[in-house]
Amino acid sequence: MSVPVGDDDLPAGLESAEGFAASPDAFQRLWTPHRAVYVGQGQGALDDACPFCAAPSRPDDEALIVARGRHAFVLLNLYPYNPGHLLVCPYRHISTYDLATPDEVAEIGSLTQIAMRVAREVSHAQGFNLGMNQGAVGGAGIAEHLHQHVVPRYGGDSNFFPIIAQTKAVTQLLGDVREALAAAWPDGGDQATR
What we know:
With 194 residues, this protein is an alpha+beta fold. The protein has helices spanning 36-48, 51-54, 60-63, 102-123, 160-165, 174-184, and strands at 65-68, 72-76, 86-90, 127-131, 148-153. A 5-stranded antiparallel beta sheet has the order 1-2-3-5-4.
């Protein structure tokens, strides 16, 4: 993706680095000021508090929670790989899968299955990547709190953007995705009543 140097020629949302004090690199910048709330508050909160422990105490729409169970809950990933990228987390603050109780393991599995069914219904997902990155060395972005990724996949969702332009295209706003998934979730997302 070649972007002209002059600011007048840049597509909306892109700004030339020319004239700023910086060392040039291969990255173009797509300015996303709407993310400032997370960077200013959420990222700082990662230093002091676990976002997966804090999420259940907030309203579902604010925390991006799609469904709540007795031992685990489902929420959208703030940095989705694909639209509808969900995380299934136990309420208990544990770091690895082997520390989960049999009840937590069962509910994480059940919520993962439901998440797949709902994603197929709502967004017509054609496949899924499921996984738990264990520990920082294992690739976990938040290694202190266990979470399973449920990533819907679609034919043609891999394109040149991430490789050539260091950009990931996500087609829907997180709030809209949360609303659609929660509305399609059995029992309105409250699995604790089953």
